[in-house]
Amino acid sequence: MIARLNSLISRVNSKTPKPAYSKPSRKTNSPQQDKEHPPPHTPLPHAEPPKTDYPLDCLTPKLRSAAEAIMRMTQGPAAIAAQSVLSIASLVAGSRAKVETLGSHANATNAFITIALSGERKSAADKIAKAGINRAIERLRKEHDSAMARYKSELASTARGEDKPAAPVCPSFLVTEPTVEGAFQTIASGCGFLGWFTDEAASFWGGHSMSKDQRAKTSGIVSKFWDGDYFFRPRAGKEGDGYVPPTATTINLMFQPKLLPDTYGDDFLIGQGLLARMLACWPESKMGTRKYKRKTEEDKAAAKRFQDDSEAALMDTLEDKTEKYLSLSEDALEICIEFHNNVEYTLGPGGWAADISGFASKSAEHACRLAAIMTLFEGRDAKTVSGDVMKAACDLVKYYLKQYKFLCIAATNDTEVAQAQTLLDWLRKNLQPGDAFATDRILQYGPIGARRAKVLTRLLEILMQNRWIHELPEGTEVDGKKRRKAYSLSPQA
């Protein structure tokens, strides 16, 4: 293994590393040109997600088919569907596996964060993706109820002095109200793996676990789950030394953009490394474009195949506790090394990824974990990650790298910028480019956040600074009245 790795490193390093992200060329105009041709409006600074499509074609066939079907059925963003199916695949297929990385073996599971407004169909996508898991849980609960009834009957008939029968334990592996104590209680059931899923992650970020006094502890524990470390948690009145074994953990948290300042804008969470262990995205909204469409039989069938595959994989994982090890093929290892080197090139002072080093430094491991998840969901008996799957996993991580950096930047914005973007969206929806308008129309009919005069004044200033609107001369007539303050929407809007 070491000799093979050193040989490949030498081959890859012999190539001149290229930065993963090129810097656009910059053209400058002369002052005279600027005067004759005023610069067009500029996008508000990171007020909304970039128009970057999720690379669905990087998913392996079963996952891609499911994600595309869920995307069409919910009419939500592709990224939401992809995050849902990847997290399910991680839980059911990767929970008893480890994968070779450029360091040591790592758990073949991962953590996901999806950021989207209410109404973006987060819950709908998750509900479809989790249906197979839910069926398995319901069946296990019924079997446990029957086992408990038999246990109570046997216990009642046990004579004094006879050994009492052991109480049955219901397999428990899923936490839907994410707290650290809930996670440890679930681990205690003995399944050996954990799923931490919620489409209302505000209760986690804003709850007791992430309060000022607890967040250092919670962040450290969740990071250890991802790392595959064990714990000692001695408790008064409890037997034993409090040993908690390494537990492969899949995390899928969904929350709204308003929590960005409390997560990706929190220097402690960024520095501690919790968020660097999670694959996050904030997809572009599709609201306003979703005319009702009936679900096709083909999409229903594709979703059901995924649900059936997930249920079967979960039951196999529960029944067979043998740990699997995936190695990287020669091609996969070479691709992973080259990806690592290209990202490393951008980590130097002034480099593209210098200010997101926590996440970027884990990019190769993220790629290995994703490659393992996709490989195992396609075939539970797989032992090797192919070069094609590793290439696809690296391309997925490139998407997450861009998203992570964007989220860290967007989280530093003032609330006013997001409100200004909402106002701009309203103006573009209700006016034609170049139309004049007065503030009374906004105060009466505009977005809720812009209906206070002082707030509106500031939002209009932001839009003027970015040349989306222009102030008109005092006395301009708008809607049949001469106005002290009037504006026009940019002709290029």
Keywords:
493 residues; alpha/beta; Arc Repressor Mutant, subunit A; 48% helix; 12% strand
How would you explain this protein's 3D organization?
The protein is of the alpha/beta class and 493 residues long. The protein has two domains: 48-154 and 166-286 and 293-413, 3-Layer(aba) Sandwich (Rossmann fold), CATH 3.40.50; 415-489, Orthogonal Bundle (Arc Repressor Mutant, subunit A), CATH 1.10.10. Helix content is 48%, strand content 12%. It has 19 helices and 16 strands. The chain has helices spanning 2-13, 31-36, 61-74, 78-94, 122-129, 131-156, 180-187, 202-205, 215-227, 260-263, 267-272, 297-319, 330-345, 357-360, 363-378, 387-410, 415-430, 439-445, 453-465; strands at 97-99, 106-107, 111-115, 174-175, 193-198, 231-232, 243-244, 248-255, 278-281, 324-328, 384-385, 436-437, 469-472, 476-478, 481-483, 486-489. The strands form five sheets. A five-stranded parallel beta sheet has the order 4-5-8-3-9, with helices on both faces. A four-stranded mixed beta sheet has the order 2-1-10-11. Strands 12-16-13 form a three-stranded antiparallel beta sheet. A hairpin with a 6-residue loop joins strand 1 and strand 2. Helix 3 (61-74) crosses helix 4 and helix 4 (78-94) runs parallel beside helix 12 (297-319). The longest helix has 26 residues, at 131-156. It is globular, with a radius of gyration of 27 Å. It starts with a helix and ends with a strand.
